[in-house]
Amino acid sequence: MSNLKIEPLQLSELDDFIRIYWAAFAPTEADMILPMLYPRGLTLDLMTELRARLLRETEGGKLGDTCFAAKDSETGEIVAVSKWAVNLHPATTRAEAEAELEQVREARFGGPAVEGVNRGLGEAFLTALVFTEWEIMQGRPYVGLRNLATHPDHQRKGAGALLLRDGLARFADRLGLPVYLDAGAFGRPLYEKHEFEVLRDFPFDGRKYGGRSEGKHWCMVRPAQK
Asked: Is-above-0.85 flag for pTM?
């Protein structure tokens, strides 16, 4: 799609952001964690909580500093979204990683409980997420790609790649930092085309916690570019 533009996400576009990544992650063949965590689907209560969670994670007014949208230049329709994090002072010890886990847990589950949430699966996933990232990055400053999703109606047309290249240039290459991410089956080929390397399988199996599938992911790193 040659008629796309990348813009910082606006507060008024928060619902579009949520709907797009839900639509991208919900299909069974995507084998993602999110629909296993919330098996009742994108209910009104869940939409309210996901809005609040994104604002907690981005400190509200800083939403556009880390979240971006690929838009159709003519219609303004958002077709893909991304969320990044720059970690200049990562955990260097297990105790620091445990403290970080508590912060992540509060951001994820600090709001009102959503009916039907698989909390056990969520806790296990967050623990694996934080400690695996800590083990791999070993206290080095880095950029994390937290979310990259294209609406199913617009997939495989270049929107995700455009957002990925924008974020790599905006954060990683400007700062000279490596990039860490957890890739699902749909995303891995795109990341491999952009110099990400698989370091290990992500140590999580959703079936152990009542999930519909394994939720297969890979831990990938793109080295700092010189």
From this structure: yes
